[in-house]
Amino acid sequence: MTDEGQPLIRSATAQDSDAVFELSRMMAITFDVNRRAFMLSYKTILESNGGHLLVAEISGLIVGYLLGFDHPSFFANGSVAWVEELAVFPERRRSKAGSHLMADFEDRVRQRGARLVALATTRASSFYKAIGYEHRADYFRKIL
Prior knowledge:
The chain is built from four helices and five strands, in the order βααβββαβα. The relative contact order is 0.16. It has a five-stranded mixed sheet, with helices on both faces. It is an alpha+beta fold. It has helices at residues 17-27, 35-47, 97-111, 125-130, and strands at 8-11, 51-58, 61-72, 79-88, 114-119. The protein is globular and about 40 Å long. The mean pLDDT is 92. It has a single domain, classed as 3-Layer(aba) Sandwich (Aminopeptidase).
């Protein structure tokens, strides 16, 4: 646990699923997050080698999470990492939980050999620019 001012960043556990589920529902735009599908993915991610599910905790409460992955690549002369999801409860967005989650993820994937962290966002460009990220590409998608 931490004091009110400093988020503790740690790997998520099975006991964190309710808070992560609520946050993921708030963050989702395209899909409604289904509890059953969420739990299947949650279990798989906790058991995966390249998956990183981190939570930010303040005073014993989960206030945010980050879901990211790292994997080998050719273009970067090593592994690359991708931030899939980052969510912080609205009332905690000025707690630095998001920037602490990103810094912890960067440290973890750097230790695993990642040379690049990338992500796509539609709502948080100013946040990512403030923590040192640059806009480099367009985002394309196809819903299956």
